[in-house]
Amino acid sequence: MADVARREAPLCSEQFGSGAARGCRPAADGSLQWEAWGRRWWGFSGAFTGKPGGRDGGGGVAPGTASPPLSPLLAVFLPQGFPDSVSPDYLPYQLWDSVQAFASSLSGSLATHAVLLGIGVGNAKASVSAATATWLVKDSTGMLGRIVFAWWMGSKMDCNAKQWRLFADILNDVAMFLEIMAPIFPICFTMTICISNLAKCIVSVAGGATRAALTMHQARRNNMADVSAKDGSQETLVSLAGLLVSLLMLPLVSDCPRLSLGCFFFLTALHIYANYRAVRALVIETLNEGRLWLVLKHFLQRGEVLGPTTANQMEPLWTGFWPSLSLSLGVPLHHLTSSVFELQQLVEGHREPYLLRWDQSRNQVQVVLSQMAGPETVLRAATHGLVLGALREDGPLPWELEELRNRARAGPEKESWVIVKETHQVLDKLFPKFLKGSAQGLLPSSTV
Question: Higher-confidence residue: 175 or 134?
């Protein structure tokens, strides 16, 4: 009878936060007999009971107190509800991100040691006022650079978060290398550390902006604050570990510049590799210009829409900053036309709420969006521009576009507006199929 009772279905089950589900069954005295946390009913011995009104101290165990020992530690560093509350790529990205942060922390210790030596720490002949002036010039240069870089590139980092994240970490390695080399050339010391601090301030802008974009991608339950806070906790833990290791490492390498430089190059290689693996682990479901071009090119050649994982694996990380086609969405109308005749050419054949101009000589597409343009219209306008760019490249295309490509290459550039007009008709047939396939995997993004 006991074996039969053990195989009965549970009365109910519960799952709290990121813990495993557990069930309960009625005990002989009418109380509820719960499974152990994280283990099946038939996989443990020594079931415990929780009686109603368990405050009498008669052996009742409050739910959650029997959690595995690792659960409270994970709850400190992982978002509540993990893994369901974050994207599937959260764990591999955070693991590699922790590795790169640890390597960067050790490299930073070597760089800080070199800067302090260059300023004069430990040198009785060094001037305190000169060291203070050098430090102030270094900081002020970085502050100005941070403002200028945020104004110049701030709007471009949302759609290319992976590329800018990788760029920021590589630039950080370059900045630390300059700091290590600065004491070797004392004449150029101030200028070198100013350039280094300028690079580090650019890194802080690019790293912070891309971290916000990636947090938005990872948070799946409107829990951006929790994901961001736990990322900060993970980074703090890694930095603390790096600090402790640095305390052991610096006395061993400080008296040997070659060994210090060798450690730096090893840590830099590990840092870049871990960053690449972290960024490559990301599977972002929205479309930027690079992913849209990959998906569209595959669709035009094979009639299939790539899935998010495949598109992200194919996305270039080192060359994503310089696409062959210059595509600008949302430009002012006066940038496209300066006469009534040009405006009439621009409007002719445009039935969608956007106007498009193609400059073949510059390989440039500019799009004016109507106030009525929604996400689908923006995606079509971007697709339209990339289709025009495909006419200038080699490779198989649908027969309608193949004919237009031959005409575009043979005809004068001033007739580009005719090609634009006819590509509207081609898109009327192709775009609904492309949009349907995209909706099943990758989603349009407003930051194309």
Answer: 175
CA distance to 28, 59, 71, 398, 432, per residue, from 403 (Å): 82, 82, 63, 9, 21
Asked if residue 207 lies in contact with residue 162, where contact means CB atoms within 8 angstroms, the answer is: no
| Residues 205-234 pLDDT 10s | 999 999 999 999 999 999 999 999 999 999
Long-range residue pairs from 296-304, CB within 8 A, at least 24 positions apart, any chain: 296/383, 296/386, 296/387, 296/390, 296/434, 297/390, 297/395, 299/430, 299/433, 299/434, 299/437, 300/387, 300/390, 300/396, 300/397, 300/398, 300/401, 300/430, 301/395, 301/396, 301/397, 304/437
Burial letters 407-417, b for 16+ CB under 10 A, else e? ebeeeeeeebb
**Helix/strand/coil for 394:** coil
Residues 397-433 have pLDDT tens digits of 888 888 888 888 876 666 788 888 889 989 999 999 9
Length of the chain: 448
**Cα distance between residue 198 and residue 275, in whole Å:** 21
* pLDDT tens, residue by residue, 370-397: 988 999 999 999 999 999 988 888 888 8
Q: State the CB neighbour count (10 A cutoff) for residue 226.
A: 19
What distance in Å separates the CA atoms of residue 423 and residue 356, rounded to the nearest whole number? 11
Alpha-carbon distance values, 415 to 256, 345, 412, 420 (Å):
68, 10, 6, 9
| pLDDT tens for each residue of 292-321 | 999 999 999 888 889 999 999 999 888 655
Q: What is the pTM of this model?
A: 0.80
- DSSP, residue by residue, 72-120: HHHHHHS-TTTTTTB-TTHHHHHHHHHHHHHHHHHHHHHHHHHHHHHHT
Each residue of 378-404: b (16+ CB within 10 Å) or e?
bbbbbbbbbbbbbbeeeeebeeebeeb
Q: Is 25 exposed, middle or buried (0-12, 13-18, 19+ CB in 10 A)?
A: middle
Question: What's the rounded mean pLDDT across residues 59-74?
Answer: 50
Evaluated on CA atoms 67, 68, 73, 74, the torsion sign reads negative
H helix intervals, 219-322: 224-253, 257-281, 289-302, 308-314
